[in-house]
Prior knowledge:
Layout: E1 9-12, H1 22-40, H2 44-57, H3 62-65, H4 67-74, H5 78-84, H6 95-104, E2 108-113, H7 117-126, E3 135-138, H8 149-158, E4 166-169, H9 173-182, E5 186-190, E6 206-207, H10 214-220
Parallel strand pairs: 1-2, 1-4, 2-3, 4-5, 5-6
Amino acid sequence: MVNWEQIKTVMLDMDGTLLDLHYDNHFWLTHLPLRFAQIHGLSLAESQQQLQQHINSLEGTLNWYCLDYWSEQLKLDILALKKETQHKIKERPHTNAFLNALKQSGKTVYLVTNAHPDGVDIKFKQTSIEPFFDEVITSHQFQKPKEQDSFWQALSQDYAFDNDNTLFIDDNKTVLNTATNFGIKYVLGIHQPDSQKTRQLIDVPAINDFDEIMTGLKNNA
């Protein structure tokens, strides 16, 4: 349970937290390798090997999340390819109810994501989450991913929040640990960010779905 009386600011990740990570995993692991093979005249196996090596080498860096970087490196219009599978974009269970309860309770709500701004726009157009945020913050603004301490330093200089009354929810354990080390007092993970893949986070507090933490929030509204 979250003690909502102690929380004034809620920072929320997008992919895997508010939205089903299946869209992103399907795009990068299935759709992109197929389209890369078709466009560049490769076998699917060759495409998968080339892409996976490149992607894995950049995990945790800003380029790993940057659509401009991948468009340039792969000689593809990544944004156009992402739109080919945009029908797979959907909210995780109870997302809209949770966001609505946050707004009704008067909390300050920040979207804090590593996603590229163009990717954020696609997802806003496919979902109904955009109106709930007081600020939409992407790590591309600071040229630093959330995995780095310097992101949190930059965030705290540009946006108003107090570590002691802020809750941060994210599906990435490394990001959660970085936020904790920075001083964010309340952090929560998401056990199963991809609806098609079973996962349980360990060593960090985590939930399956937002309905597990909404009761106190509703009472505090």
